[in-house]
Specification:
This protein has about 1150 residues and is of the alpha+beta class. Helices cover about 45% and strands about 15% of the residues. A 6-stranded mixed sheet has the order 3-4-2-1-15-14. Strands 5-6-7-8-13-10 form a 6-stranded mixed sheet.
């Protein structure tokens, strides 16, 4: 079915009940001819009666509405439009419909100025969680309804002067939704959808994720509603017909569900199968055992057990839901026919809620545990949501000049390109001895010269210890698995089973011995996806190759680890800065910086003559001949058994292209290394080494003031050549062409892509006849750092850092989280943009602190962290470490200096303290000399940073105290330790504890706004009002409203700890006890109790104690504080006894 235009209407019906009025509304709707209509505040029974004959009707009634007036929200949709799925959620607040390639969300959050917090939760969590169920499942998303909130300040003019709803802004950002009224009429347009005597607001919206909204109007209904209707017209097609794909080529990615990691029944079944398999093997002739058969059979069994167990977990509940949903729809039909079946409807909803509640409890338990274990969980979640927001189906692909449309043609086009790229390519047969042309380069390699012990270590069987170390320390446990669906998470989980270790290690050594994967397939899955920008260019697509983790770990990672340890340090040129433990990318950039500074010269003598030529290879990994790598390994004299091990991984290797869950036929890999495979990087740098050595021999080089002669530098395939004379370019080109012929690598020559760039200095800048394949630049970017023949390198790279930092910050400005979570976010995701460059360049102080109107990185980061807070703490307290009561915010300028100093020391030591560096590269040497004079020349960045930071947070060796810390009667070290050891709380509670101790809670006495109310104003017994100034002590202890609850906390703590506890000790968490486990439980209990007092709107002591009993029970249930169950039981008994006294 194809629809030319798609029209959406949203109306708040002002709680109408009269059938005559509802029929008038129906007539109004028919005039506008909308495909979909969202109606809020309407009598459900009347809506069903009037609209059902003409439309499909979906309703969501407010809870217990039949006792009042039966009001809810209704979505009506034309009969010819097929609804694929629907969601009824949040008790009369959310209706979701999926039709073809569009998902429709009808929303109606709670109204009223007193419920802004509830609306915030609705937009940030409730609505977001429902919408995530269908995220990326359709092309278009349309959301409409009375939102009871605004997302711009200008959309509200009222007496309360309320700010726009932050949660709504965040919601729109996360889901990529736009205000279609503004899309049509412009960002500066102002209109109001609800006008009363006291206010004018625009709270009725239709949002979408498309630019295809053609018309948008706010319309007076003439029905005496207090809201205008909003109407939008979209130029979108409703396409239902699915693309036909051959069933045998359908690829469904499956991964073992994470929840099975702790499912004891699943683990017991797996253990049983593995143990029986081991027993079966032990009864066979060991020499005839095919471990590939038993390993493959075991993996299939694990996969089957996982699927069956997961199905059992969800089957029973789903069956109940299906039955209840049928009854629910039947009851709605009765109501439509005029039958008074509201009570029956409420009964069915209550049964549905029991099921949803059970699911919710499991989800809440899991989420709560996650929030406690990982205090930055929601920060990570947001990052992951944004990371691949633009992923989706690939409908077209451009290969060369041809455009292919449709999944089948797209897959075949990509597969065709890959078949060409992965063909042998080399004219010389694989087994033939080296040719004279190959020998020219192979002679540049020297034999490894391995000792007998090193050879034995290189070819030793794979061991359990080796696998265990890598599995526990060197893998991402949730990285994408291969076709078997088994992740490192579950390999690590199974590793505790002796039978699993037995099978796995024997399988690895078996396939090494036979030289192939036996009965197991050796196939990788190459998934092609969109990058951040949705382009049809094949070369700009993300290509992710996924292989089974068992072979990836046991063969690839072990082989690579041994190669890096025993071979690469002996054969790689020192100027290859990849795959070597002693040098890295920062060392290459430092050398390039030194060279760049040298070539810039000085004002007196001008620039030095020279050129930095950047060379890049096209598809370097996939283009390398496998014959060439075989010859390289032989030339190095590697043990044949180790060489054979590599070919075991590549024998019969194939890849399958997957696009939109449709796969190509397997493509045999006869050339190149698989990107993402552990051996690929190490194998490639070995293949490139002969070219690097050859270039070193023919280039004159540029000798800098540190007596270093710079010739060739490389980080993997990214090579930089240092040319003293432009006449060297033909020599270089000739050498590269000869190397291309023997290795299969191809240098980028297309000038339009500007991959090979020249940065000339001195008289080289006057040269006009550069080769066509070279692009001449005044500045070039090398692996994230800029180098230039004009201007200041520090400023150039400082501007780069600042732009990247501010771009990331502005995208993240609405991020939700506590101050501590925002500090983590700034440290991890924002300041990390600075550290890379700060290791190379001495960045200006103004970059961090700003100057005049110029914004600084630190000042903007602090605005982000403290946005919406009542007051900030002192700067030293923000930078102080958490174990000393601070927030642990990194001081970026100090950390940047620490990075620079570390590399300054490394440079000076490497070049024998050559003072040319002091004058020409680093400038100020005072900080570095101070560090070295303290005997810290070997110190790591962390230690140097701490030394420099002490000058910021300390005064003459003493910590600079905060305002609250000047209180002498508080045992602050104990308070800091208790806060640092605080466990079992969610981020908001942890933040509350810190603010509590530092007296930063926004009580009346701490609010500094003009004309702010500082009195308590709590309503006490007999209806009197508390007129005392509300400070921290008044809120928790003095005021009659909360005082009685606080005193009960003191009684519990005194009895539990067996000693008196003062208010000062409780409020600063500075009490102590000889039993550390008991002390931790007491601190946890105090924080939980006080936090509940802080957020509670009532003074019900019994209710709070019941909630605390639930908290204790939850910790027991979830096995938290596993070593302290005795203490938890004792605490529970005390609380349970006191709740009745």
């Amino acid at each position: 079915m194809i629809q030319e235009y798609f029209k959406v209407l949203s109306i708040n019906a002002s709680r109408i009940r009269n059938l005559g009025r509802i029929r008038e509304l129906y007539a109004f709707i028919m005039l506008l001819d909308a495909e979909v209509v969202f109606i809020q505040e309407i009598y459900i029974a009347g809506a069903l009666q009037v609209f059902s004959p003409h439309f499909q009707v979906y309703v969501n009634m407010e809870p217990r509405a039949y006792d009042t007036d039966g009001v809810g929200i209704v979505t009506i949709i034309k009969h010819e439009i097929k609804v694929l799925e629907n969601i009824i959620g949040s008790e009369g607040r959310i209706l979701g419909l999926k039709i073809a390639n569009v998902q429709l969300w009808h929303v109606y959050p709670i109204s009223g100025s007193g419920f802004k917090k509830e609306r915030e939760i609705f937009f940030r969590e409730t609505l977001n969680n429902y919408m995530m169920l269908w995220k990326d499942s359709t092309k278009y998303v349309i959301q409409g309804g009375d939102h009871n909130a605004t997302h711009r300040l200008v959309d509200s003019v009222n007496n309360q002067r309320e700010k726009f709803q932050d949660g709504l802004v965040k919601h729109l950002t996360v889901h990529g939704l736009k205000d279609d009224f503004l899309s049509v009429h412009g960002e500066n347009e102002i209109c109001y959808s609800r006008i009363t005597a006291r206010s004018k607001t625009r709270i009725d919206y239709i949002f979408s994720n498309t630019k295809k909204c053609m018309e948008f109007e706010y319309i007076e209904t003439q029905l005496n509603f207090d809201h205008k209707a909003c109407w939008a017209k979209y130029d979108i097609e409703l396409v239902y017909q699915k693309e036909f794909l051959p069933r045998e080529r359908f690829y469904k990615s499956w991964v073992i569900p994470k929840n099975l990691e702790f499912d004891q029944e699943f683990l017991n079944c797996v253990k049983f199968v593995l143990e029986r398999t081991e027993e079966e093997i032990m009864q066979l002739d060991w020499e005839k055992v095919d471990f590939s058969y038993f390993w493959g059979r075991s993996k299939l069994a694990i996969k089957k057990i996982a699927k069956e167990r997961q199905a059992v977990i969800v089957k029973e509940v789903n069956e109940q839901l299906n039955v209840l949903n049928i009854f629910y729809l039947g009851t709605l039909e009765k109501i439509k026919d005029g039958v008074d079946a509201f009570e029956e409807l409420e009964s069915i909803k209550s049964k549905l809620n029991v099921i949803y509640k059970a699911r919710a409890e499991q989800a809440v338990d899991k989420l709560k545990g996650t929030l406690i274990d990982d205090h930055v969980y929601d920060i990570h979640k947001l990052q992951n949501q944004r990371r691949f927001e633009n992923e989706g189906r690939i409908k077209q692909i451009k290969v060369g000049e041809n455009i292919y449309t449709g999944t089948v043609d797209v897959v075949e086009a990509i597969a065709g390109v890959m078949r060409e790229e992965l063909k042998v390519g080399c004219d010389e047969p694989f087994e033939n001895p080296e040719t004279p042309e190959e020998a020219v380069f192979l002679e540049k390699l020297r034999k490894v010269g391995l000792s007998r012990e090193e050879k034995m270590e290189l070819i030793a069987p794979v061991s359990e210890e080796e696998i265990g170390i890598i599995l526990n320390n060197e893998v991402d446990k949730d990285s994408s698995p291969g076709e078997d669906g088994i992740t490192y998470r579950f390999m690590k989980c199974f590793w505790d089973m002796p039978s699993y270790r037995f099978l796995y290690v024997n399988y690895l050594n078996y396939i090494r011995e036979i030289g192939n994967f036996g009965l197991e397939s050796n196939n990788g899955i190459m998934v092609v996806k969109n990058k951040k920008t949705n382009t049809i260019e094949y070369k700009k697509k993300r290509k992710l190759t996924k292989v089974n983790k068992d072979s990836n770990l046991g063969l690839g990672k072990v082989w690579t680890k041994r190669l890096k340890k025993l071979v690469l340090p002996k054969v790689l040129p020192k100027t290859q800065f990849n795959c070597q433990d002693e040098v890295n990318i920062i060392d290459e950039l430092r050398e390039l910086r030194n060279l760049n500074q040298f070539l810039l010269g000085d004002e007196t003598h001008g620039q030095i003559n020279g050129t930095i030529l950047s060379i890049d290879f096209d598809n370097a990994y996939r283009s390398t001949y496998l014959r060439w790598f075989n010859l390289v390994m032989k030339a190095l004299g590697l043990p044949q058994e180790f060489v054979d091990w590599f070919w075991t991984m590549y024998k019969d290797l194939s890849v399958t292209i997957v696009v939109n869950s449709f796969k190509s036929l397997p493509i045999k890999v006869e050339r190149g290394f698989m990107e993402g495979s552990p051996p690929s990087m190490a194998a490639f740098v070995l293949c490139l080494a002969p070219l690097m050595v050859s270039l070193e021999e023919v280039l004159e080089g540029i000798q800098t003031g540190d007596d270093i002669n710079h010739k060739v530098k490389a980080f993997a395939d990214d090579m930089k050549l240092c040319l003293a004379d432009p006449k060297e370019i033909p020599v270089v080109y000739d050498l590269i062409c000869k190397f291309e012929a023997v290795s299969g690598m191809k240098m980028h020559r297309d000038p339009r892509r500007e991959k090979c760039q020249a940065l000339p200095f001195g008289t080289h800048r006057d040269i006009q006849d550069w080769p066509e394949w070279v692009t001449v630049k005044d500045a070039i970017k090398v692996v994230g750092a800029w180098f230039s023949n004009i201007g200041n390198l520090e400023k150039l790279n400082g501007d780069l850092v600042k732009k990247v930092f501010f771009d990331t910050l502005h995208k993240s400005w609405g991020i939700r989280g506590t101050i501590q979570q925002k500090v983590y976010f700034v440290n991890t995701y924002l300041f990390s943009k600075v550290w890379y460059i700060s290791q190379i360049f001495d960045l200006d102080k103004k970059l961090f602190y700003g100057s005049g109107r110029e914004k600084g990185i630190l000042t903007q980061a602090l605005k982000f962290i403290w946005a919406g807070e009542n007051e900030r703490c002192t700067r030293p307290l923000q930078f102080r470490s958490k174990d000393k009561g601070g927030l642990g915010l990194i001081e970026p300028y100090v950390k940047a200096k620490a990075f620079l100093v570390k590399n300054m020391v490394k440079d000076f030591k490497q070049y024998e303290f050559n003072h040319w560096f002091l004058e020409n590269i680093y400038g100020d040497q005072q900080i570095m000399l101070e560090i070295m004079n303290q005997g810290k020349a070997e110190a790591q960045v962390k230690e140097i940073y701490q030394i420099l930071l002490d000058k910021v947070v300390s005064n003459n060796g003493s910590i600079i105290p905060s305002r609250e810390e000047r209180r002498s009667q508080v045992k602050w070290k104990r308070s800091w330790k208790n806060q640092s050891n605080l466990r079992g709380v969610v981020p908001e509670e942890k933040m509350f504890a810190w603010k509590l101790c530092q007296d930063l809670l926004p009580v009346g006495a701490r609010i500094h706004r003009a004309n702010a109310e500082r009195r308590c104003l709590a309503i006490l017994d007999m209806g009197t009002t508390c007129l005392e100034v509300q400070d921290r002590e008044h809120f928790f202890r003095v005021c009659e409203l909360k005082g009685q609850i606080y005193r009960r906390l003191e009684m519990v703590l005194c009895k539990f700890l067996g000693k008196d506890v003062s208010f000062v000790e409780v409020i600063h968490l500075s009490f102590s006890h000889r039993n550390e486990r008991k002390l931790r439980i007491a601190v946890w209990f105090a924080v939980k109790w006080l936090y509940k007092m802080w957020i509670s709107k009532n003074d019900n002591r019994l209710q709070l104690m019941m909630e605390m009993l639930k908290e204790i029970d939850w910790n027991v249930k979830m096995k938290r504080f596993s070593r302290s169950h005795g203490e938890l039981s004792e605490l529970r008994e005390i609380v349970d006894t006191m709740k009745n006294t």
